[in-house]
Amino acid sequence: GKSMFFFFFLDNSKKMMLSDHSPARLRTSEGVNTLMWNMLCPAEHVVDFGYYNNGFGCEKETPLQYQSRLVQVAGQLSRYSDGIDVIALQEAPETDELRGLFIEHLKAGLPTYQLSSFYDETKGIYLMLFHNTERFELCPDLTCRMQQLELHEGLNKRSLPVVLLNKENGKQYLFVNVHADYSKTVLADIELMLNLAISLGIDHIQWLGDFNRALCNTAKEYDDDTSHKDIANFTEHHDGSKFSIGEAPQSSFCYKKNTRILETRDGHISSKALGEVSLEVLVDMNTPLPGSRTVDLNQDFLLEKSFIDSLGLVKDRELEERPAL
């Protein structure tokens, strides 16, 4: 059958994107590759708090539009999964029905991937982490120990730790899917997780996802709030040779007409033992209709120049009816 694909439009006409975050792929020289994506919950203007929960200035995304977008996100994850061991998703669907729809379409394209998830209904936080069972095996006892750890700051009920065994080298990896609280520090929680992981004999660690703050000292835009400077000097608390930190400021953007703008920043903190980590923002994955990507530079949006450059400028084209995924 056919269905109308749904996209957000950067200029309220024909600028097509699936989420206000583009996914990012992390490749390590050790050969362990991960993908992170804040896939955007149902978009709306939160009247009580006076801000948009999305970077498009969307007042209200309808249930049908959101379901259409979920199917498209699942399709893109399937298409871009080659060589990916772990997929970390933030703002995943929050109801059983919508999760079922999303997982059904995702499993069709990723039959060898196993799901771990976390949901806090009081905060509306839903995190998903998929791992490829052909290369990794879940360590249930160690995962349980990590998930039982009591956190107190910005990762409390905002993170999903999963411990996996690499079938090829026999090493244990802790992957932590992160959607940090913007208003709280996170370094103390990271320290707690790190200390427990070391005591449990876990070999490698990678935190990845939406940290909602600058991660590197070179970041300038979001450093006004002192609570966001805690990770920037993370290596000063440890031997700098043990961890690498990377961020993708060009992966996300904000709608400038917010009465309150919630800044975002995606990135990772990884054990140096994983080897060199390269971070690539997958803009094409977020804009699945070939040739439909365009940005009007006169519009009132906060877009990183590198993000704009990566989009390229092409002629507008109408959104057409196309076969469903």
Structural write-up:
It is globular and about 45 Å long. Helix 1 (63-79) runs parallel beside helix 2 (96-109). It is α+β, with helices and mostly antiparallel strands and 325 residues long. A six-stranded mixed β-sheet has the order 9-10-8-5-4-18, with no helix packed on it. The longest helix has 17 residues, at 63-79. The model is unreliable at 9-15, 218-223, 256-262 and 290-325 (pLDDT under 50). The protein contains six helices and 20 strands. 19% of the residues lie in helices and 28% in strands. The chain has helices at residues 63-79, 96-109, 140-147, 187-199, 283-286, 305-311; strands spanning 2-3, 8-9, 16-17, 24-28, 33-38, 45-46, 51-52, 86-90, 113-120, 125-132, 136-138, 159-166, 172-179, 204-210, 243-248, 254-255, 266-271, 277-281, 301-302, 322-323.
The mean pLDDT is 77
- Cα gyration radius (Å): 19 Å
Helix and strand pattern = EEEEEEEHEHEEEHEEHEEEEEHEHE
Label the structural class.
Answer: alpha+beta
Helicity, in percent?
A: 10-25%
Measure the end-to-end span: 10 Å
The gross shape turns out to be globular
| Main beta-sheet annotation | 6 strands, mixed
The side-by-side strand order for the widest beta sheet comes to 9-10-8-5-4-18
Uncertain segments: 9-15, 218-223, 256-262, 290-325
Strand content: 25-35%
- Number of H/I helices: 6
Number of strands: 20
